[in-house]
Amino acid sequence: AQSVTQLGSHVSVSEGALVLLRCNYSSSVPPYLFWYVQYPNQGLQLLLKYTSAATLVKGINGFEAEFKKSETSFHLTKPSAHMSDAAEYFCAVSDGAAGNKLTFGGGTRVLVKP
Amino acid sequence: GAGVSQSPSNKVTEKGKDVELRCDPISGHTALYWYRQSLGQGLEFLIYFQGNSAPDKSGLPSDRFSAERTGGSVSTLTIQRTQQEDSAVYLCASSSNNSPLHFGNGTRLTVT
């Protein structure tokens, strides 16, 4: 069985500040890990994915995430927050590269203060 | 081309009524998924179709829920005798081989 825990259901950052969203996973097989973003009244959009290649993964909109097997973590970061980053972010795990049957974390809502 | 399309975008129904939610996947995508997003439960997997294989129904919460996929393309999620706890956003996603899931904008279902 797989599971994902996202620490903090809400995060508030100032514009220009570092964004750090935490994700820890549990998986009995080598995991495939994903971060998705959801803007209001929209579906989920893929930010980035880890599929056992490089442990530091770069995604869209300046986001990146680092896979740390020893810590079972896949934290998402962005060096400088922009107002447009205000959204909900979901970490997810699957056992297949295509992302079938994703198991999601509870989500972290990001508020960006001017 | 177009993304995953879901209809209706919003649906209000009375408790006990049946509802049908529709999903048009991206053309050529062989895999189709339904998820439910609700307060307190997060995003839950419901059902997964892959080509002509039997669907994976392991996430359906009760026998009031069913889904079909006709001709390997459009899918309909049906909820019979709706209950208030069925109120949620129902998200559809599709993918092709080795591609991540592409999600639609969802159908917001409200059961009154």
What can you see in these coordinates?
The complex is a heterodimer of chains A (114) and B (112). In chain A, strands 2, 4, 5, 9, 10 and 11 form a six-stranded mixed sheet that branches. Chain A has strands spanning 3-7, 10-14, 19-26, 32-38, 44-50, 56-58, 64-68, 73-78, 87-94, 103-104, 108-113. Chain A is 0% helix and 54% strand. Chain A contains no helices and eleven strands. In chain B, the strands form two sheets. In chain B, strands 2, 4, 5, 8, 9 and 10 form a six-stranded mixed sheet that branches. The termini of chain B are far apart. At the A-B interface, strand 5 and strand 10 of A face strand 4, strand 5, strand 8 and strand 9 of B.
Average the pLDDT over all residues of chain A and give the rounded result. 92
Q: What string, H for helix and E for strand, traces the elements of chain A in order?
A: EEEEEEEEEEE
Query: Globular, elongated, flat, extended or rod-shaped: what is the shape of chain A?
Result: globular
Q: Spans of chain B with pLDDT under 50 lasting ≥5 residues?
A: none
The average pLDDT of chain B is 93
Largest sheet of chain A: 6 strands, mixed
Q: Please bin the fraction of helical residues of chain B.
A: under 10%
Largest sheet of chain B: 6 strands, mixed
Number of β-strand runs of chain A = 11
Assign the structural class of chain B, choosing from mainly alpha, mainly beta, alpha/beta, alpha+beta, or little secondary structure.
Answer: mainly beta
- Gross geometry of chain B: globular
Which range best describes the helical content of chain A: under 10%, 10-25%, 25-40%, 40-55%, 55-70% or over 70%?
under 10%
Our estimate of the beta-strand percent of chain B is over 45%
Rg value of chain B: 13 Å
